[in-house]
Amino acid sequence: EADIYQTPRYLVIGTGKKITLECSQTMGHDKMYWYQQDPGMELHLIHYSYGVNSTEKGDLSSESTVSRIRTEHFPLTLESARPSHTSQYLCASSDPLKTGQGASGANVLTFGAGSRLTVL
Amino acid sequence: DAKTTQPNSMESNEEEPVHLPCNHSTISGTDYIHWYRQLPSQGPEYVIHGLTSNVNNRMASLAIAEDRKSSTLILHRATLRDAAVYYCILRSGAGSYQLTFGKGTKLSVIP
Predict the structure, then answer these.
(1) How distant is the Cα of A111 from the closest Cα of chain B, in angstroms?
(2) Which chain A residue lies closest to B49 (C-alpha atoms)?
(3) Which among A76, A87, A77 has a CA at the least distance from the CA of A37?
(4) Which stretch, A15-19, A106-110, B88-92, B100-104, has highest mean pLDDT?
(5) Do B111 and B80 touch, CB atoms closer than 8 A?
(6) What pLDDT does residue B29 have?
(7) What would the DSSP string read from start to end of A96-110?
(8) A117/chain B closest Cα distance in angstroms
(9) Chain A contact for B49, CB < 8 A?
(10) What's the rounded mean pLDDT across residues A112-120?
(11) Chain-chain contact of B97 with A43 (C-beta, under 8 angstroms)
(12) Would you tell me how many other CB atoms lie within 10 Å of the CB of residue B104?
């Protein structure tokens, strides 16, 4: 049963539109992440947050922005969508102290089902 | 982050064991070995992780070489539902919480 929710699952929009991909988790995790994945390709980290009011850019440069005003919510926004933004966006969360795995080496990530964005 | 090397693809017959290899020759002493898998059209899911000792859970077993430069994920009886991309990832135990995914191994299960 999923404890991390992403909406919308699928979105088709025109160029220039502003979009927000929602991600919410009910596990009380401090750490949240956004990954981008093109079909058949690797996942790339684009944003992460270690807590409220904390956001950092990931390994892959992205024109998207994120915010973390509440622990459970980590939305991703594209101010002006372009066809190059067409991709799948995956949200994840983790908290090493709450995974039941013991050592901090665990930090198990729980992923949402993803939001597949198509920009025409 | 230390890098891992996995075969691009593997095949297994249903109900037979599967051994998925991973090489990580540059692993450091604080790196944990994580395995995730991604079923078609879904986000990745955690499978197992370990540091030095072999590990077992309800999904799989993780065998870690004595020098830690390689590891093997073992699925004891492959089912069709195990067809997925399997990722072997090293995560530093020294502060960083991000995971860097590689290309993984695409496992096909033959009925």
Answers:
(1) 6
(2) A106
(3) A87
(4) A15-19
(5) yes
(6) 87
(7) TTTSS--STT----E
(8) 13
(9) yes
(10) 96
(11) no
(12) 26
